[in-house]
Amino acid sequence: MNVNAPVLLSPVHAALLARNPVWSEAGVTPPAVLGFDGNDAQRAAAVGIADLSHLPRAGAKGPGTADWLAAMGLPVPLQPNSWNQLPDGGLIARLGLTEFLVEGDASITDTLMQTDRAAGVYPVLRQDASFALCGARVNELLLQTCNVDFRTLDAEPSKLILTSMAGVGVTILYTRTFTHPCYRLWCDGTYGLYLWDTLVGIAEELGGGCIGLNALR
């Protein structure tokens, strides 16, 4: 590890900082928000939004990618627009026929970006903004920002959807990995702050708002 490498902050770091969050322990990079105040649990019960942009992720694409990932021991999804959970709680998503997103333990994502790749495998730099949405009123928020009924994902837990939310292209899936059933979404980091502000504003109107990782665990 290069100790002089710059710390990559979340695309919404400034918005988080303005709310005086409790950060993860010193030395953990990039930093993650553990909570905001004593009301995180109440907001999560209504509709909470947590920033997960700090999680390590890597991408790869090309005609040889599925076989290459399988040779590394990863549970490669068989169908496009689907995902599988990794043993450490991370995930591998198949975004099309030959493009994949892997998120989870840094040892896995570092390996994907550093290992000599086979012919027909090309790295994809993932600088996403990534959020989790949970709570009893989360579908009300989703319906205000997108014309897709995401409740269909509840019945198809391995499926993911590529769509537009508040005018921003997103990848979204449903998971029960955390304490609360929730939706995970990813978008281009350059649109992250706009989407975050939009979702937080709606969540607050619904009685929820920003939450930290401790409210999801």
Would you give an account of this structure?
- The chain contains seven helices and 13 strands.
- The chain is an alpha+beta fold and 217 residues long.
- The protein has two domains: 132 residues, 2-Layer Sandwich (Gyrase A, domain 2), CATH 3.30.1360.120; 68 residues, Alpha-Beta Plaits.
- Strands 10-11-12-9-3-13 form a six-stranded mixed β-sheet. Strands 5-6-7-4-8 form a five-stranded antiparallel β-sheet, covered by helices on one side.
- The chain is globular, with a radius of gyration of 17 Å.
- The N terminus is likely disordered.
Keywords for this entry:
single chain; 217 residues; alpha+beta; Gyrase A, domain 2; Alpha-Beta Plaits; six-stranded mixed beta sheet; five-stranded antiparallel beta sheet; 13 strands; globular
Write the layout of secondary structure elements.
Layout: H1 13-17, E1 22-23, E2 33-35, H2 40-47, E3 48-51, E4 57-61, H3 65-71, E5 82-85, E6 91-94, E7 99-103, H4 106-114, E8 122-124, E9 128-134, H5 138-145, H6 152-155, E10 160-165, E11 168-175, E12 182-188, H7 192-205, E13 209-210
Parallel strand pairs: 3-13
Antiparallel strand pairs: 1-2, 3-9, 4-7, 4-8, 5-6, 6-7, 9-12, 10-11, 11-12
Brief account:
This protein has 217 residues and is α+β, with helices and mostly antiparallel strands.
